[in-house]
């Protein structure tokens, strides 16, 4: 039987993410013309105020957010037959929060952030094509650079602040799939079942 879905939705999301044993989500943005862009990101925090991840700027996602803060995200846990879909606003956190996130990153992701930083000014929109070998060289140079133990100026942290979260669970032979919608209501949330 599907689990009872109630209580604080962000606490529930954190529990499902823990049970799902992976913390990636598909994060979708749209540019000023409404053209959508989606990608996978690694979630590093789920709290009362939203869901956060780290990234480089400027990238497609940070450009989109600057033009249009509305964003959506999907978590899918295949083993559990569960999904959570978030809708809300994406905001960039301040430098102190971003730095703390950087220091907690695995070394290879710190080095990657610096490699991206060193290449960004040399790549051209709209494709940002990278010549062969250049990324590997930039990665090796960043790894050897002591400055890479602190975040580059291109490092940023995004928080998706949801005002709607849908929790979906697969059904069985004898019970239907369920979907429970949580909608922000003042300081709290209201929830109700919707068609799955
Ligand atoms: C499993 C996985 C985790 C990823 N985590 C991140 C992440 O936390 N931050 C990030 O910027 N990109 C991450 N990426 C790369 C993004 O999917 C994407 O390629 C990159 O952020 C550029 O996206 P954009 O050009 O649409 O802004 C991850 C990719 C995968 C497959």
UniProtKB/TrEMBL annotation:
Domain of life of the organism encoding this protein: Bacteria
Keywords per UniProt: Flavoprotein, FMN, Oxidoreductase
Bilayer-crossing regions: none
Cofactor names: FMN
Residues of the Pyridoxamine 5'-phosphate oxidase N-terminal domain: 21-124
Pfam families: PNPOx_N
PANTHER family: PYRIDOXINE-5'-PHOSPHATE OXIDASE, PYRIDOXINE-5-PHOSPHATE OXIDASE
Protein's name according to its UniProt entry: Pyridoxamine 5'-phosphate oxidase
Taxonomic lineage of the native organism: Bacteria, Bacillati, Actinomycetota, Actinomycetes, Pseudonocardiales
Gene name as annotated: pdxH_2
